[in-house]
Structures are given as C-alpha cells and as structure tokens.
Specification:
Layout (H helix, E strand, L loop, with lengths): L1 H18 L15 E5 L2 E4 L4 E4 L2 H4 L8 H13 L10 H11 L8 E5 L2 H16 L3 E5 L8 H6 L15 E4 L14 H19 L4 E7 L14 H12 L2 E5 L23 E4 L11 E5 L1 H6 L15 H16 L2 H21 L5 E7 L2 E9 L4 E2 L8 H12 L2 E2 L1 E3 L2 E4 L7 H22 L1
Parallel strand pairs: 3-14, 5-6, 5-7, 7-8, 8-9
Antiparallel strand pairs: 1-2, 2-3, 4-10, 9-10, 11-12, 12-13, 12-16, 15-16
Helix pairs in contact: 3-10, 4-10, 7-8, 11-13, 12-13
The structure holds pyridoxal-5'-phosphate (PLP).
Pyridoxal-5'-phosphate binds next to helix 5.
C-alpha cells in the first residue's frame, strides 16, 4: 500500500510540475512538498514523513486539519445543497453571518461575504470611498493586505513593488515597531506617541478631506507580528473620528482567536467602522472571507445600490464550515486555549530560546501568534536576511527544522511560530524543542 501511495505522490508531483503554476514563485526554482495526509497539527509528505505544522499552512488552519465537526458539516451541507447564487437566502449563510456577528465588536452586525482576504479588503475600501466620497486610503509600511490589484497596492511589503500603482490614492505611513523604530523611540510609550503624531502629520499633509480610510492589520502578521503598543489603535480611532475617516481593521490573520481574543482589536478596546476577515473564520476548509459592516456605512447602502458582488458570495459549503468552526471554537474553548498557550508555553518557551541563541534579537507576539526576529549582531540589530529576501543562514534554520519534522513559517529574517490554536501543550513543546536544536545546528554550521 505504501508503494502505491508513493507512486501516487510521485505522479501528483510530476503533474504539478508540468501543469500547475504556483503563487509568488519562479516556477522552475520550486520544489513543493506533496501532502498526502493531514490531521490536527500534523501533515505527512509523499514519502510518509510526518511534520508538525507550526505555520498553520498560511496561518489559516486555526482548528488544525480534518476537525471532525467541520468535516461533517461540509459533508452534510454537500448532501443538502452544494451551491446557490448569492442573491438567494441560504440557511448556512444566514447562520454564519449571525454567528460571526455575535463575536465581532459592537455594531459590526452586517456581513458581506467574499472568497478570501484580498477581496474583503478591496470591498471594504470601496465601501469607505463611497460612504465618504473621498478617494485616498492610508495604510502602513510592513503590512500585507492581499494579492489583488488594490489590496497589493495598500500592502506595505516587497510584494507590492512589482504591481505598484501609486495613482490609486494609496499613501503609506510608518506604524509602531519599537525594535526597528522609525521614530528613534526607546520605549513603547514613546513609540506609540510618536507613531500617532506621525500619522496625524500624514493626515494633515495629505488633506483630511481627501482620505476615505485608514486600513490597518490590528496586529501586522506576515510583516512581523508587531503587537501595537497599548493605546495605538485607540489613537488611530480618535484621529479617524476627528477627521471623518473610516477605520478599517484587517483581521484576516489576527482574527478568530489567533491573537488570544476573538479579534485583536479587543486588545485595545477599539471598534472599527469596517472589519475584514478570512482564514480562521472556517479554518480555511473552503475559501471564505468577508467584511463586517457597522451601521453608518450599512445605512449608506440601505437605499442606494452597493456596486459590487461575487458569484460565490456566502457559498453554502464555506458558510457551513464557518458555522461548524465557530461552534467548535466556542464548545472547545479554543480562543482561551490559544491565549494560555501563548502566555504559558510559546511566549516563555521562545524567550528561553532567546536566552540561549545569539541570533534571536527579539521575541514578540501573543496567543498563538509569535515571531522571532533574527539578527546576525544583537548590538547593531543587523537582520539575518535582508529586507525582502532570504539568506543561507535562514535557509539552514528552515532545513534543520524540516529534517527534524517541523514546519515553521519564515519571512525574510523572521521565523513565525503560528501553530493551530488547539495545538496541545505537548505538541507546542515538541515544536520549541525542534526549533532549539535547529538553531543550534544552523549556527554551528555557519561557523
Ligand atoms: N490580509 C491579511 C492580514 C493577510 O494575512 C492576508 C493573507 O495572508 C490577506 C489579507 C489576503 O488574504 P487572501 O490570501 O485570502 O486573499
């Protein structure tokens, strides 16, 4: 049976290389992993090797793989009604919208469903522009908002460069990031105050009457898991209120428990005007994203047509998966578990690694959302890989992790530990132990 599996995996690989065009890649420099099986926090490759998934794939399998309640919900929905046009009423969609609204901040009670995070941000910006009648959108450097035209332009990472179209009314500013402060700050309080003063100046210089929205990841994810200092998001909320600007919180990665709360805006008690979500809403078991809409923007489109839509908006299979995911998260205390995992295991465990490994410049995060900022020199904070690229040292760490059965997420000079939220304490410790060994091996071989 094993050899049949192996033959199947080899055939899948060969066909992939011949016919599948992969995201964000030079097609012939790829060696993608065949995944034949996945369960909970583990995946198996074509040769039968098991890996602990500390990346939750692309930070979306918040319940891990093959959660039986979610699998069953998809099967049951498929048996009843696989698909239906968005203009109809469907019980899976209605119930998903209701359940999501029980967890979103006060007043964000109307859901516009999309296929994922990028289109959720596109629609949120469109709503804010139509609501305010203003053209511009402000977003921060060191951010990721998606791969479609406008979403990649509001993004503040190198993936924007190839498609840059500054004419779209997109303006970038610096957000708080004390370790690499753009404001020469030395404390979180200073960083918060100066980042808000900088944003206020950008608003003044751009012209408040031209700005429709400020779009911010509540905790920037792929860009480095920079938990904002207390008061920063509240300060942004105040600036928005003062100038009639819509606050769009991108909770695509930070939402649905990842940061140890249902939504990361709760860390600063902030209610945005619009909030985008995807990924964890249904653990990625079927493509789903959305915009949670507050009452004032909803009212704009009460009598006036909203000019936007998608064939699969509120797809029944994806919505049934969302309903089951949210029920499982509630019933199994998943958000509370993620919070505890961060506070008791991942946070202290990663800090202990920092005490041992010179390459770790900073450990930051919360919940099941952690980053190691790796540096070649702690004094100068020289990154272990340049901005926008990898390095032999980073590749060596990742290879050493993989050999030992761990798949962390890597971005430039950072390793992110973002396992499924229901990862057990033992599994989390297993991952930390492998990371410890991998850092030692890579450092030793770097000489
Ligand atoms: N926003 C954030 C914060 C994300 O992390 C991502 C994806 O990683 C997106 C938006 C884009 O989501 P999608 O890839 O589903 O379009």
């Amino acid at each position: 049976e094993r050899s049949t599996d192996l033959a199947g995996a080899e055939r899948a690989y060969e066909l992939d290389r011949r016919h599948v065009f992969h995201s964000w890649s030079a097609q012939e420099k790829l060696d993608p992993m065949v995944v034949t099986k996945a369960e909970g926090a583990y995946v198996w490759d074509g040769a039968g090797n098991r890996y602990l998934d500390f990346a939750s794939q692309l930070v979306f399998t918040n319940l891990g793989h093959q959660h039986p309640k979610v699998v069953r919900a998809i099967q049951e929905q498929a048996a009843i009604l696989c698909t239906i046009a968005p203009g109809t009423v469907n019980d899976a969609r209605s119930e998903a919208a209701r359940l999501i609204s029980t967890h979103t901040p006060d007043g964000l009670d109307r859901m516009f469903f999309t296929n994922g995070g990028a289109d959720a941000n596109e629609h949120a910006i469109r709503m804010a522009r139509l609501h305010t009648g203003r053209p511009k959108v402000l977003s921060r450097y060191r951010s990721y908002h998606g791969g479609t035209h406008l979403a990649v332009n509001v993004t503040g990472d190198p993936r924007r460069w190839a498609s840059d179209a500054a004419a779209d009314g997109v303006v970038h500013f610096f957000g708080p990031f004390l370790y690499r402060s753009a404001f020469s700050a030395t404390t979180q309080e200073e960083e918060c105050e100066r980042a808000l003063a900088h944003l206020e100046q950008v608003i003044q210089l751009e012209g408040p009457s031209t700005i429709a929205a400020i779009l911010l990841e509540s905790i920037p994810g792929t860009a480095g898991i920079m938990v904002p200092p207390p008061g920063y998001l509240r300060g942004v909320r105040e600036l928005c209120d003062r100038h009639g600007i819509m606050f769009i919180a991108d909770e695509v990665m930070s939402g649905f428990g990842r940061a140890g709360k249902w939504f990361a805006v709760e860390h600063d008690d902030v209610v945005p005007d619009l909030m985008t979500f995807a990924k964890g809403v249904n653990s990625g078991y079927a493509p789903l994203g959305g915009v949670a809409i507050g009452e004032p923007i909803y009212r704009t489109f009460a009598e006036r047509v909203y000019p936007g839509g998608l064939t699969y908006s509120g797809h029944p299979l994806a919505c049934a998966a969302a309903v089951a995911t949210i029920h499982a998260m509630e019933d199994e205390g998943v958000v509370e578990h993620a919070e505890r995992l961060g506070r008791e295991v991942l946070g202290p465990g990663l800090q202990a690694l920092a005490g041992k490994h010179e390459w770790i410049g900073e450990v930051r995060g919360t919940g099941a959302f952690w980053a190691l900022e790796l540096v070649s020199d702690r004094a100068t904070r020289e990154p272990l890989a340049p901005y926008g690229a990898s390095s032999p040292e980073m590749a060596a760490i990742l290879a050493a992790c993989k050999t030992r059965g761990l798949l962390p997420m890597a971005n430039f000079n950072r390793i992110h530990c973002v396992p499924p939220l229901n990862t057990s304490v033992d599994e989390a410790r297993e991952g930390l132990a492998i990371l410890d060994e991998a850092l030692t091996e890579a450092r030793t071989s770097a000489g």
